[in-house]
Write a structure and sequence with these properties.
Two copies of one chain form a homodimer. The first copy, chain A, is an alpha+beta fold. The first copy, chain A, has three domains: 261 residues, Bira Bifunctional Protein, Domain 2 (BirA Bifunctional Protein, domain 2, 2-Layer Sandwich); 96 residues, Rossmann fold; 71 residues, C-terminal domain of ProRS (Translation Initiation Factor IF3). Chain A contains 14 helices and 24 strands. In chain A, the strands form six sheets. An eight-stranded mixed β-sheet of chain A has the order 3-7-8-14-11-10-9-23, sandwiched between helices. In chain A, strands 16-15-17-18-19 form a five-stranded mixed β-sheet, sandwiched between helices. In chain A, strands 20-21-24-22 form a four-stranded mixed β-sheet. Chain A starts with 14 loop residues before the first helix and ends with a strand. The mean pLDDT of chain A is 95. The interface between A and B is large, with 53 and 53 residues. Strand 5 of chain A pairs antiparallel with strand 5 of chain B, so a sheet runs across the interface.
């Protein structure tokens, strides 16, 4: 029997090593020879598929269609919108050769698809009847960053969806920006059980080429904040660069109004960091590929009886995702540890004594709580327990996040709170110069967003002497 | 009102121009600035999603899991299996720079993922308990071919699934090769209504690095054959190159047995070419994103009545994919042409006279046949009509394919049949030298496969004087 290799690092004491162990030992990630490029193993990819299923339904309700645009973008297209190219060109992976032949023009591996999509949009849109145009694509993108890569959170290739929509009016576009952001909030809160704060990005932190960017942000047990997903209003910046125009009802030529929005595999990392513990992964039931694992405790003489009962239980639970672990070559204790490490929300243990009493033991991954349940009642108790786990994880995370938000009124307290690894809420002038100053003075702390739900704005900016214009969130972040 | 732009080329007289028009006018494809890279518009991508849904269910039944491996493969990995690299390196797109920085090692944009996957497999597989290992991934691949690109059929980037499985024994692996090929056959025949012939590829035509390759092949109205999908047995070629070994039950080290198999977006092009006609696209109901379109014929005084009836019909058909075209700015005739061009299987027309008689007109896209149906009966007649269309398309295509297969007994007849654009069945020595000769003498005609269902083998090879070993299919092909 292979010796069990549990998580040896502690989340509190060595977060980074702990995370590295969890994602590998829970069978989510494999490292490769290329720094920053990771293999998403089946247990990780299945989580992404749950997100896709949820989001595709929301897209359908909104009549947004899936499409697929080319991976490789000719250099001249990428260069068309000035702010955009400035934001992305330092991290573009360039294809220069095919076989032994040098290409006439370099091709960018897409870091995002605005430029290739909008080149086509300009051809497709002629009249107000062609609007709105609402497309989404699920794909891989490459951003060759030089910051320290972290699996899921910052990888050089990642998977995402990118929505790109075009409207006749600014108003329609703006309504959609917030609508999509609310879907992202639901993904985090309802699927991942991760609380997030919706808000608007500062001018410095907005998307390269956007008029404004909205985001959902959260705060992780590592003491760092993180951006969960973004929804951008592009205004007419790209429509002017790509000549996306339409004839309105009075036959006047107008530039279109555009949005883009995306959520990535980063979201999986956020969920892992938020909930998991020193035993390994903790998965919210709604995204767990396996929600319940049944582990029979067998001895030679009672094996058949126990295994029959296991089948009976599994049959009762067939509307849930259930796995049976009846492997002979591992002990029950070894299996318990393994399934805890892999984050299965409920473990059902059943041995010969349980069979004789017509019962089984249900063990919750989130609390470790054990509950003896009559077999006939498992089918009603297990789904409720899954709901409970989902809620408990969210509530715990919400309490954690809220308790780490500190409101400050002066710069000294600001500095202290950042040093204490808090998420700081402060009155702010909303000036990029001031934000630059904060970043310099506080070891990279930056504004996360300006929450939609605003406190009363009163008094001065926490950093300069100007009058405060907004209340913003600041923290060190990924 | 925009003037309707129908298909102006004929399938019989100018197949290539006809196809180019159909895929664009049916809103499936947009060309881009990069030769060989195309945009899959929503109506095309939706067909791919139907295939994914079908295939994912089959994967699940077989306990094959989805995963995701990196896009970029370091050069040294790609070089590990000699036959494989010979097959792919001339068409590899190379990433050489990130931003302004030259990379230390070139990275190949994956042309296929054997090498990056098997590098990981070597780490994961230790014992016979780790086998079988069965993974699949849905992704994009790039092969920078210099042959004339054709949307769907031969594009430089395409979407596919690639399955990569590892077994302890050759026998298990071989069983799977044929099992997966039978799923591909079902995709073509049951979803796409395209008949295919299963067989084994010749030594010359097999996958670079495989022991043997199986394929499904069909014959298109352009007079050319085409490969639909392939399932390969890799033997121990890659396990030896990548050191994928396991300890068997007696603790002996063994090299594993491997398969890989894939189906691509090419399959969509095959379906389009097979069924479509001079009015535009013809879609089999099982893959049609919209199965029925309802076109109300409205006059100002009766508009409300007619539109109410349309809603009533749509409600009855809610288990099907139904679209209502109640646009004011196009005439019914314009709409009829448009939906025919886009291949919607059934069109329902309803005007005030129909409403007064409580009826509607159902028009089949495949035959053009019109049927007057009582409104109360639409919900039973429409699904049956869709089934009929699906069957009719398959039967028509099967008859077409079968009638284009010619059995020949000597080289003279062989040459004539190829010249007549037929699919030729011939006794063959199965020698690569002989196949090379055929290719040279017959303007690129090559062996398609050696069908599993074999005729009696008797006499000499159709090309040389050796004894025939197999009956093979030959044709000019894409």
């Amino acid at each position: 029997m292979t010796k069990q290799k549990g998580i040896t690092a502690s989340k509190d004491n060595d977060f980074s090593e702990w995370y590295t162990q969890v994602i590998q030992k829970a069978d989510l990630i494999e490292y490769t020879d290329v720094s920053g490029c990771y293999i998403l193993k089946p247990r990780a990819y299945a989580i992404w598929e749950k997100l896709q299923e949820f989001f595709n339904k929301e897209l359908k309700k909104r009549n947004i269609k899936n499409a697929y645009f080319p991976l490789l973008i000719p250099e001249h297209l990428l260069m068309k919108e000035k702010e955009h190219v400035k934001g992305f060109s330092p991290e573009v992976a360039w294809v220069t050769h095919s076989g032994d032949t040098k290409l006439a023009e370099r091709l960018a591996v897409r870091p995002t698809s605005e430029t290739i999509m909008y080149d086509a949009y300009a051809k497709w849109i002629r009249s107000h009847n062609d609007l709105p145009l609402k497309l989404n694509q699920w794909c891989n993108v490459v951003r060759w960053e030089f910051k320290n890569p972290v699996p899921f959170l910052r990888s050089r290739e990642f998977l995402w969806q990118e929505g790109h929509t075009v409207f006749a009016t600014k108003k329609e576009a703006e309504i959609e920006v917030y609508d999509i952001l609310s879907v992202y909030k639901r993904i985090f809160e309802e699927l991942y059980a991760v609380p997030v704060i919706e808000g608007t990005k500062s001018v410095k932190e907005k998307f390269a080429g956007a008029d404004f960017t909205t985001s959902v942000e959260t705060f992780l047990p590592s003491g760092k904040a993180i951006q969960g997903a973004t929804s951008h209003h592009l205004g007419q910046n790209f429509s002017k660069a790509f000549d996306i125009t339409f004839l309105d009802k009075d036959s006047n030529k107008q530039y279109a109004w555009q949005n883009s929005w995306g959520i990535t595999t980063r979201s999986i990392g956020i969920m892992i960091m938020m909930h998991s513990d020193d035993k390994g992964l903790v998965l919210p039931p709604r995204v767990a590929p396996t929600q319940i694992v049944i582990v029979p405790i067998v001895f030679e003489d009672s094996k058949k009886n126990v295994l029959n009962k296991v089948k009976e239980i599994a049959k009762q639970l067939k509307s849930l995702n259930v796995e049976i672990d009846d492997r002979d070559n591992y002990s029950p204790g070894w299996k318990f540890n393994e399934w805890e490490m892999k984050g299965i929300p409920i473990r059902i243990e059943i041995g010969p004594k349980d069979v004789s009493k017509n019962q089984a033991v249900l063990v919750r991954r989130d609390t470790g709580e054990e509950k003896i349940v009559k077999i006939s009642e498992i089918k009603t108790i297990a789904p409720k327990m899954l709901d409970d786990i989902q809620k408990n994880l969210f509530n715990k995370a919400k309490k954690f996040m809220d308790s780490n938000i500190v409101e400050v009124e002066n710069f000294k307290d600001f500095v202290k709170a950042i040093k204490d690894k808090k998420m700081v809420k402060a009155q702010w002038c909303n000036n990029p110069v001031c934000e630059e100053k904060i970043k310099d003075k506080m070891g990279g702390a930056k504004s996360l967003n300006i929450p939609f739900v605003q406190l009363k704005i009163s008094g001065k900016c926490v950093c300069c002497d100007e009058k405060a214009k907004v209340v913003a969130l600041f923290a060190k972040s990924y």
